[in-house]
Write a structure and sequence with these properties.
This protein is of the alpha+beta class and about 575 residues long. The strands form 8 sheets. It has a 5-stranded mixed sheet with strand order 20-19-21-14-22. Strands 1-13-24-12 form a 4-stranded antiparallel sheet, covered by helices on one side. It has a 4-stranded mixed sheet with strand order 2-11-10-9, with helices on one face. The longest helix is centred in the C-terminal third of the chain and has 18 residues, at about 525-540. The two termini are about 45 Å apart. This is ABC transporter substrate-binding protein.
Length: about 575
């Protein structure tokens, strides 16, 4: 299972703090090359009216009584503290094993190309770029006088070095760059060439890369973080990247902050980077507090300056009563789902999966029980994505009669005890979940829902998320509750259906549409393809889509210029935060 999916599932389902895009390599992969720096300008509409409706009634509330600010927070004059589940200490992009490490590295590194609030490409370390007419060659123009945090220059050689080592045969990280198909990369990996022919350093500020075939995610995927050749490459030997793991705890980055000290189990201390291309951050120190504890307590006592919660009216009222925090709501760019064990015979039957979708009252479980803080999901796309659509999509509204009809058609007959049977086997659903309020609600309501359609529901809850993941990977389950990582591009939301991650699912038509959508950078064309793909997956239900969450974030009223990005989290704007 993809690490980023697992780790953000832990973040979201455990009710922890959502901080930034939790991919282990912090790669963006937005669809288009639209915008002022691109050749094509197919910006289209970022989000449909349907998607916007999911975020309805967004609010922004300023702190009402700063006299309530805890003394602990008042004492901080040059430091902002944010809570984070324990990172491992591996803070170099591309070589991380934890999405929590990615939260840290998102402040230590800045990519060549980032995203604006609409999810479209935006200049990062690269001030502009060009894409060839055949969509195969990408040329990046770096800003002048870029520096790493130690003051050493950042040039096109560093970019070329980064792309090269990710195509080394010993690279075993999660980056998608090796799969994008750089011309000559296969020969380099096979030892048939000493360089990658598709990578060209034109001058110190200009580098180009040529692909074997078009890929709509290439601009930002290749425009990810840059590693220093002088630092990370001094010990590089072809076929051996083991030394990189030793350097991961001593990152040399390009971001607004640089690592000062990591104290495992306690905190990650960072200090403002005076060499940051956009200027030294306005607040000198930034700390990720990593000790386990109650997020509410940390916020109330002033131990942290920021926290995120489900946007229930109860939570909003409680946060408002604190007086010293500003509030705003947002919808993260991800979706929740029940992973299905398609290798179990009863779950491999589409009729059974559809019956479960009809038989679960998802509106009550995920929306009503959460005081409307979210909506039901039916496709593998973020509610705020430009690809989101409800046209032609089956909403699977709660209908136990329809569920019973489908189970009858699938040959499952109701036994004397009310549980359905087939070929002498009872229809049992073994559910795995992580201990949190949402899964408590799910189990309570799903127990009654499943009973009404003759399914023997057997829930199992884990206090330790990693233990749950281990059981999923061992195959001893029927359904398991997860949430995706933050989705930068529509392809991210469907990747698990084509890359072999979801065992037992292999649909050539899904793969064909997935590849077709990546072969063009025209957003309108991609929308059409994804609409067809969503209809197919909505019908087949290789996973059972559950919900979108609406979050409320609260931050210390002393912080000015605070901004939350629903795709990239805190990192794009943290350098502008100030304490008044």
């Amino acid at each position: 299972m993809r690490k980023s999916t697992i780790l953000l599932a832990s973040l979201m389902l455990a009710g922890s703090i959502l901080l930034s895009a939790c991919s282990s390599n912090n790669e963006a992969s937005n669809a288009s090359n639209a915008g002022s720096n691109a050749v094509a300008s197919n910006s289209g509409s970022n989000s449909s009216s349907n998607a916007a409706g999911v975020q309805g009634d967004d609010l922004s509330i300023e702190a009402s009584d700063m006299t309530k600010l805890p003394q602990l927070a008042q004492n901080r004059t040059d430091t902002i503290i944010v809570g984070l589940t324990d990172p491992s200490g591996s803070f170099t992009p591309y070589f991380q094993q934890s999405g929590y490490d990615g939260n840290v590295s998102s402040l230590l590194y800045t990519p060549l190309v980032t995203q604006d609030e609409k999810g479209l490409p935006k200049a990062g370390l690269a001030e502009k770029w060009e894409v060839s007419e055949d969509q195969l060659t990408y040329t990046y123009h770096l800003r002048k006088d870029l520096k790493f945090t130690d003051g050493s220059p950042l040039t096109a050689d560093d970019v070329a070095f980064t792309w090269t080592i990710l195509n080394d045969p010993s690279y075993d990280g999660d980056s998608l760059i090796p799969s994008i198909g750089i011309k000559g990369a296969a020969d380099y990996k096979a030892g048939k060439a000493t360089t990658i022919s598709g990578i060209k350093v034109i001058d110190p500020q200009t580098v180009s890369v040529t692909l074997e075939k078009p890929n709509a995610t290439a601009l930002e995927l290749l425009g990810s973080d840059v590693l220093s050749k002088a630092y990370y490459g001094k010990d590089y030997k072809y076929g051996n990247l083991n030394y990189m793991k030793d350097l991961s705890s001593k990152p040399l980055g390009t971001g607004p902050y640089k690592l000062e000290k990591f104290i495992p189990g306690q905190e990650v201390r960072m200090v403002a980077n005076e060499n940051y291309f956009a200027g030294k951050p306005k607040t000198e120190h930034f700390i990720y507090k990593t000790s386990d504890g109650d997020t509410w307590q940390y916020l109330e006592t002033g131990e942290v300056d920021y926290a995120s919660f489900s946007a229930t009216q109860e939570n909003i009222d409680k946060l408002k009563s604190m007086g010293f925090v500003n509030l705003a709501t947002y919808t993260p760019s991800n979706y929740g789902y029940l992973q299905v064990n398609l290798e179990h015979s009863q779950m491999s039957d589409k009729n059974v999966r559809q019956a479960i979708a009809y038989g679960l009252d998802r509106q009550s479980i995920y929306v009503d029980a959460n005081q409307g803080a979210g909506s039901v999901a039916n496709i593998p796309a973020a509610a705020i994505s430009w690809s989101y659509t409800e046209d032609g999509i089956n909403p699977y509204k709660y209908d136990p009669d329809k569920a019973n009809q489908l189970l009858d058609e699938a040959g499952w007959t109701v036994g004397s005890d009310g549980i359905r049977e087939k070929d002498g086997k009872k229809l049992t659903v073994h559910f795995l979940g992580f201990k949190n309020a949402q899964n408590d609600i799910f189990i309570s309501l799903a127990t009654e829902n499943f009973k009404a359609i003759g399914i023997d529901f057997q829930p199992e809850i884990f206090a330790d998320f990693n233990a749950m993941v281990a059981k999923v990977e061992g195959g001893d389950y029927d359904l398991a509750a997860f949430s995706t990582s933050l989705l930068n591009d529509p392809s991210d939301g469907v990747a698990q259906f084509v890359d072999g991650e979801l065992k037992g699912y292999d649909n050539p038509q899904v793969k064909e549409l997935y590849n077709k959508a990546l072969a063009t950078s025209d957003i309108e064309e991609r929308k059409t393809i994804y609409a067809e793909l969503y209809k197919l997956l909505n019908d087949e239900l290789p996973v059972i889509f559950t919900n979108y969450k609406k979050q409320v974030y609260a931050y210390n009223g002393r912080i000015e210029n605070f901004k939350m990005d629903p795709i990239l989290g805190l990192s794009p704007n943290v350098n502008n935060w100030t304490l008044k």
